[in-house]
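Operator note (shift B, R.M.): manual run for Proline dehydrogenase requested after the automated queue skipped it. Running by hand, logging everything below so the morning shift can see what happened. Input copied straight from the record, untouched. If output looks odd, do not overwrite the archive copy; leave it for review.
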Amino acid sequence: MMCSRLRPSLSHLLSLRLLGTAAPRMAAARRSDLLSATLAFEDPSAFRVKSLGELLRALGIFRLCSFPVLVNHCGKLMSVARTFLGKRGFSLLLRPTVYAQFVAGENEREISQSMEKMSLLGLRPMLAVPIEEDLGESTGEKRYDDNMEAMLECVRMSHSNAWSRDPMMQLKITALLSPELCVKLTTLIAKQPYDLNLVVRAMDGEPISFPGLDESEVAHFLCGLQRLNKIAEASVNKVRVLVDAEYTYMNPALSLVTMAMMKKFNKDGAWIWNTYQCYLKDSRSLLLDALCLSKNEGFCLGVKLVRGAYMDKERKLAEKEGCLDPIHQCWEDTNDSYNGSLDVMLEVISQKPERYRIIVATHNEESVRRAAKRMEELGIDKDGGAVCFGQLLGMCDHVSLTLAKEGYAVYKSVPYGSVEDTLPYLVRRAQENRTVLQGIRKERDLLRKELRRRLRLSK
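Run finished. Output pasted below as returned.
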């Protein structure tokens, strides 16, 4: 009787077996729940590293950014201020305020001081030369050659300093190739796609004839490709180059060039990356196409995943041209698009981390938590190199610092240059990121809590 009582029943054995197989999953789920709790982004102590002056400056600027009328007209307001104050007076006004909040500095000494402080906080730099062009702004080959030299200097600075660990930099193709040509190329490849090998051969200096382009356009395209080739050659095995996406009317041409660079330079690692804007309805299909192409052509794929920054202009252009709106209709659809693409990339990274990389470039806390949770579930290392996070310098520090504290690789997009050089960049970023700027109430609240804490301690 005693033995029969102790002998487990068949159903009991099955239950134990099921529990045994479920245990790892349950443990992973518990770890993920704990992880979500640690990434609450509610702790004002993230700002304890900031000086009193930095706290006050951030509070003041974020308060101004909460007024839509100021953000929408900041370009005109700054132009009036520059006229009224003069170049020197305007620089004296901007340097300790907006410039100091969002720009690393003007020269290598100033940049290094900012980057060394950032490095002590566990953050990494993603330097950005703030030069770009749009339709009607092209200024000739010399300007593009000068831009190339500035980007080569960015490669050198990113790689040669002690604060650089697995450094990244951003690159705008329209700083090296005219937007007008990019638009024409987009139209041409929509009718008849160019062979990727054709573009690679042109990068190598072969005299190539591109169907649909006239002689002067071919000459400019070849010059642009060779400029890009020089930057890529300088950066391989040193600095990861993240190519920015721009407007839909030129993005296919930018992707063509970027994929050609990937095919040539990403054989053994992801050194050239492309950007995918998830507010576009076709972003998921574009990402899946890139994954397929990288597999078929045998190159590594680096992905910068963003929501997007050109929404207003894209919608107005679509309306003007009588085209379908390329942007998702609501914020929820954009979130679903972003999170879905994020899941796709994390899945392939979990299978082949040496072939794929992603930077989760977002200020959205829910997406950050989702990425961290999926990394835990899929067994992806926090700091293994395949997945990292990115935010803009001067913004979303409560997210960046919390992630860094938890051991994740976190990059800050870091523009640099003079007040005059960075002003167009700052105006465009303010207008393109107005929804982010106007939604920083939580960051302001955390800054206020930290300020009140210090005032209490000083009494």
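Quick read of the result: Confidence is low (pLDDT under 50) at residues 1-29. The radius of gyration is 24 Å.
Leaving this for review. - R.M.
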